[in-house]
Amino acid sequence: MILSDKTISKMLKEGSLTVTPIKEGQIQSASVDIRLGNTFSIIEDMAVGIISLDHEIHYSTIRTDKYLLLPGQFVLATTMEYFALPNNMTAFVEGRSSLGRLGLFIQNAGWVDPGFEGEITLELYNANRYAIELQAGRRVGQLVFAQLDENALNPYNGKYQKQKGATGSKVFLDVDSL
User: Fold this and answer.
1) Does domain 5-43+60-144 match CATH 2.70.40.10?
2) Any residues with CB less than 8 A from the CB of 26 and at least 6 apart, and which?
3) What's residue 48's pLDDT?
4) How far apart are CA 175 and CA 165, in angstroms?
């Protein structure tokens, strides 16, 4: 079941859901608007020119209120908000159609697990032929919350728990059991 603005507001007030900082105008009928933070990361140049999923990738990270996303460029960014989801709730990250119409693709793998706590790292891609100026504090998407039928047996406690800032991939830490 997707949560309504009434339920979201109630949960925020009682502290069972955390979204901070938040302004009342961010709470929509079935979502919470998320704003762009001021941390941006890009993969550093590598001599080999190949990303291996088995090795750590290094990122260059900057803090700025404005970032110029060039055509065809990919950058990691972060939300301004810090979230803490209870063990019986999940969330979906959705981009704003107004920005998608400019060629700005926003994703974060789309899913926030029950029990996750931290800022959400966003993957931004400029599919336009013009640069797009990104500005911290601007609404870039929304978080849609859904209630689980009961508490998760294994709430999230993974490698991105309590992350702050644009956090690079830690896929090299995965132990593949296949």
Assistant:
1) yes
2) 19, 32, 33, 34, 35, 139
3) 82
4) 25
On the question of pLDDT at 27 being above 90, the answer is yes
Cα–Cα nearest to 112, from 125, 122, 104, 100:
122
Mean pLDDT, residues 118-143: 96
| Catalytic one of 44, 81, 94, 123 | 123
Residue 77, token pair as written in the block: 């960014």
Q: Is 123 a catalytic residue?
A: yes
- 103 contacts 132 by C-beta, under 8 angstroms: yes
134 near 116, Cβ under 8 Å?
no
Secondary structure element (H or E) that encloses residue 22, with its range: none
| Cα–Cα–Cα angle for 53, 54, 59, rounded to 5 degrees | 65
What is the predicted pLDDT for the residue at 79?
Answer: 97
pLDDT at 148: 97
Domains of the chain, by residue range, sit at: 5-43+60-144
**Considering just the CA atoms, what is the radius of gyration of the chain in Å?**
17
Binding residues for dCTP: 96-101, 113, 121-123, 142, 156, 159, 163
Whole-angstrom distance, CA of residue 119 vs CA of residue 50: 28
What does the pLDDT read at residue 152?
96
